[in-house]
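The following block was generated as part of the benchmark described in Methods. Ligand: adenosine-5'-triphosphate.
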Amino acid sequence: MIQVKDLRKSFGETEVLKGITTEIHEKEVVCVIGPSGSGKSTFLRCLNLLEDVTSGDVIVDGSNLIDPKVNINDVRSRVGMVFQHFNLFPHMSVLDNVTLAPIKVKGLSKAEAERAAKPLLDKVGLGEKANVYPNSLSGGQKQRVAIARALAMNPKIMLFDEPTSALDPELVGEVLEVMKELAEEGMTMVVVTHEMGFAKEVSDRVFFIDEGIFMEEGEPTQIFDDPQHPRLKAFLSKVL
Ligand code: ATP
Ligand code: MG
């Protein structure tokens, strides 16, 4: 579903991703862990063209993102993304937030988009909140709207960048629960997270990134119970 070959990304003179090669399979849930500044967000953003790739290949659902002819909107509609800070439009109702992209990008009528949005809001437990504005929601509710909004494009892949890091601790669980359901339904997911419990329980594989390199990758039991690289051991001793 996603193939990454020698992915490099520089900002000016600074090389942030230093040759990442990996593969993510259909229906797989991969968690990306690593220290602050290691390149986790940059890696994720390279998977849906929020950053352009400096060199290497990033093949997502058959499209090589380094091909200048690749259609950004097409890629983004196949790859949904959820951010740490929700990024909802404050001046639009929950329903309008969810239907905006299907109307603008996919050309659905308002009625069609709203019909499709309702079950998604139900799915994230917010069927009753369709007509309220984001301001009146808790952080956990906002993030669940953001998930529904991403799902409204009917993506094949979902990227999550620390989706629970901005939440009060008691609201983390409700968001992780929605993500877990998605995983169980077979969504292909790449999740940058500090929630090691989620990574252990839900992911099929864990990638440990440090200084722009995938230092270690493996099944969660291997990564958490039998880490090999000293940097991974040091990282885990701080976060577990
Ligand atoms: P965190 O856990 O804090 O979110 P991260 O692992 O997601 O960190 P990135 O955001 O990918 O790290 O950043 C990796 C490095 O790239 C950092 O040194 C950061 O300063 C740099 N960087 C990221 N985006 C840009 C940008 N647009 N311009 C210049 N440098 C950037
Ligand atoms: Mg980040």
